[in-house]
Amino acid sequence: MRTLIAEDDFLSRKFMMRFLSRYGECDVTVDGSECLEAFTMALDANEGYHLICLDIMMPVMDGYETLKKVREIEAKRGIPEESRVKIIM
Fold this sequence. Notes:
The protein is of the alpha/beta class. It has helices spanning about 10-20, 30-45, 65-75; strands spanning about 5, 25-30, 50-55, 85-89.
């Protein structure tokens, strides 16, 4: 399972990474903008994420805006709803 963690708090990032890395590869970003960049790069490399753990309150771009943009990217690329990344906020 490939997981992307978007969390601005260092301790929360560390905890989530330690917990989720047991289940597969984890990448970490500190804000919504970095999250979108990592998400797009993974899609371009044909290595999309299975799960995104998304903080709601982050600098640069909050979780709600990030979620909206992730779904827009998936729609533009024609990814069917049942195949889209799972997101926990």
